[in-house]
Amino acid sequence: MICSFESLGMHHDSTGNACPKDGYIMSPSRGTRGETIWSDCSREIAEALPRTKACLLDASRKDTSEHSPSLDHARYRDLPGREWTAKRQCELLLRDKDASVVTLYQACQSLQCETPRRSGYYFAGPALEGTYCAPDRECRGGECSVVFEPPSDTSDGQRGSWSDWKEQPCVSGCLQRSKGARVRRRSCEDRSRRTMATCKGLHYDVLLCKDEWLCKKKRRTIGEFATLKCGLFSDRLAELDSTAKGLQVGHEPDRPWMACAIFCRRKDIAAYYAPRVELNDFGLDPYFPDGTWCHAEEGRDYFCRQHHCLPEDFLFGKKSRGDRQREGDAEVEELGPQNAWNRLGIADRFIKYLASGPDGLPLLTSISRGIASPPGEDEWIDKDYIELPAAA
């Protein structure tokens, strides 16, 4: 059975009750951190449910309990995170099998997720109870606590190991001077089922490949491809000029995404703009296809891979994005959380940071670190209910 807490008679804290509005599960603000426990008001209602919602005590249907044990939540022993790992929680949030965890740092308060197909990162809320958060630790009540009762299938102490890479066929945008790209994936095989927790390295990678056999017709220019995409983007974003040409800007070593992002002319300012944030959740890719040529330097060609303009022989390292974030990598945090921002859409400096002049040069090369930070709890209200009039 799936139901909302409101249908059980619970109201948000501070709405019709004396409980504080922040810090608990039923807070009216969605919260970017914490809020993993019930308030006294919610507990009082929950304890009365056997009387107020007697149907909750109805026995399960015989065919459900006997033939579908997977529907019995008691099998998790109040620690669902041991099976629904942090990565699986991110996959569920973003509906993407390639989604992964940005960092396990403070995941018990606020799990951060990312995917190769979207910019920035996303808050998933506090990780589930039992989620691996550090060696020999798991999430309990919003804290990364010592594991008191290890799962029975980890008694031998074995750690995870990577499966073999599985490569997908070569695909190509068939653009001039460009190549094709091949995605490869692998999974962490771990008897404890804590996928991605005990395997170090990449689970997703993109390799260049020859595309001559795929591109037998005349190849499009990169500018033609950008113009076509900007026309599609303008159907969603009124601020884009649907009649103007699209643009590939020059490579910026400090911002390697620029030459791989599609820039479209804006109506409100005399500049071209990369709608990396606005298109995140529309299913429209604001980047050129992997394999697109983007730069040449000292006799070496550069191509787009995972939205970055990189030398042809570049190999992605083993360092995770979470490691880079803790080290203060500006690029990791430049776009901030994509489901908890209130400043990016209105900040003029941020628009200029994602914009380029007609000459292809950026209008702004840096922004203050706080411009993409999450809003305060009071600024992010999630009113997901309506008040019904009292019965006469």
Automatic annotation (TrEMBL):
<dbReference type="InterPro" id="IPR024079">
    <property type="entry name" value="MetalloPept_cat_dom_sf"/>
</dbReference>
<dbReference type="GO" id="GO:0008237">
    <property type="term" value="F:metallopeptidase activity"/>
</dbReference>
<keyword id="KW-0325">Glycoprotein</keyword>
<keyword id="KW-0401">Integrin</keyword>
<feature type="domain" description="ADAMTS cysteine-rich">
    <location>
        <begin position="80"/>
        <end position="144"/>
    </location>
</feature>
<keyword id="KW-1015">Disulfide bond</keyword>
<protein>
    <submittedName>
        <fullName>A disintegrin and metalloproteinase with thrombospondin motifs 16</fullName>
    </submittedName>
</protein>
<dbReference type="Pfam" id="PF17771">
    <property type="entry name" value="ADAMTS_CR_2"/>
</dbReference>
<dbReference type="GO" id="GO:0007229">
    <property type="term" value="P:integrin-mediated signaling pathway"/>
</dbReference>
<keyword id="KW-0862">Zinc</keyword>
<keyword id="KW-0378">Hydrolase</keyword>
<dbReference type="GO" id="GO:0046872">
    <property type="term" value="F:metal ion binding"/>
</dbReference>
<keyword id="KW-0479">Metal-binding</keyword>
<dbReference type="InterPro" id="IPR041645">
    <property type="entry name" value="ADAMTS_CR_2"/>
</dbReference>
